[in-house]
């Protein structure tokens, strides 16, 4: 398998979960994952936010607020619900991940973050995700959803046992998710990293330095070193709306994540309507891998 920097759509289509993990590791901290929200009105009207993220340099597309029972991706061509992930992969030529949330707080209001049944991290929903063509499931929590690290560990064990190598399993938190006892430096601790690894995580999600109070580059560096020692990759996340900050801030966060040693750089979905500012995706990519690899990713045809 090639490093992800050199992969095109045909490489991604043929890759197993293990091969994709190898491609990420081989890129040595130069993989960009962009989160978008399909049910929101797309920024550019008749083009999905995920397509825009791919066009600006994303290697991996992560769909947030994705309900496997009602998979809405606005501006996607009309295809059956079970084919929407595959259609997005056809249009973008990128691997697709989704967030699933291990919580018992089912949504009973109209909040964007109210967790519907199809967004819960149940075994049934994990199986549905795999059947739909999803490449990666990220077990995490949106704001106020009450997702705890203990619940993530329990779900990880179940998914690893029942779903095997069908999916890349990522796990962790980028903010407290409404659990105040897991805020700041307690969002993800060394004990959590060890628990995630032992439960079967392939990738451990951590807040990017500078995105959450108390989360410094040195702190994240220690967690990443531990994750690597346990055989896991890491993904640092901008999940606190700084994906809508100025380019200088994005570059600073990007370089701190690179110095901390992360494998995947996650950019959140709240810069504009359901995605990061497009120029910030490009600026982040250039900061961690330069103009050459950024433009190669942006320009490579999905027919390759």
Tell me about this structure.
This protein has a single domain (4-299), classed as TIM Barrel (Alpha-Beta Barrel), CATH 3.20.20.70. Strand 3 (96-100), helix 5 and strand 4 form a beta-alpha-beta unit. Helix 3 crosses helix 10, helix 8 packs across helix 9 (247-260) and helix 9 packs across helix 10. The chain contains ten helices and eight strands. The longest helix has 22 residues, at 278-299. It is of the alpha/beta class. Helices cover 38% and strands 13% of the residues. The two termini are 16 Å apart.
Question: Helices, strands, pairings?
Answer:
Layout (H helix, E strand, L loop, with lengths): L8 H6 L2 H10 L4 E7 L11 H7 L4 E5 L19 H9 L3 E5 L22 H9 L4 E4 L9 H15 L4 E5 L17 H10 L3 E5 L9 H13 L3 E6 L8 H14 L3 E4 L10 H22 L5
Helix pairs in contact: 3-10, 6-7, 7-8, 8-9, 9-10
Biggest sheet, in brief?
8 strands, parallel, barrel
Q: Could you say how many structural domains there are in total?
A: 1
Radius of gyration: 17 Å
How would you spell out the order of helices and strands?
A: HHEHEHEHEHEHEHEHEH
CATH class: Alpha Beta
Strand order in the largest sheet: 1-2-3-4-5-6-7-8
Low-confidence stretches: none
Question: What is the number of helices?
Answer: 10
SS strand fraction: 5-15%
Structural class computed from helices and strand pairing = alpha/beta
CATH topology: TIM Barrel
What would the principal axes of the Cα set say about the shape? globular
CATH homologous superfamily classification? Aldolase class I
Tell me how many strands there are. 8
Q: How widely separated are the two ends?
A: 16 Å
Helix content: 25-40%
Mean model confidence by pLDDT = 94
- The CATH architecture category equals Alpha-Beta Barrel
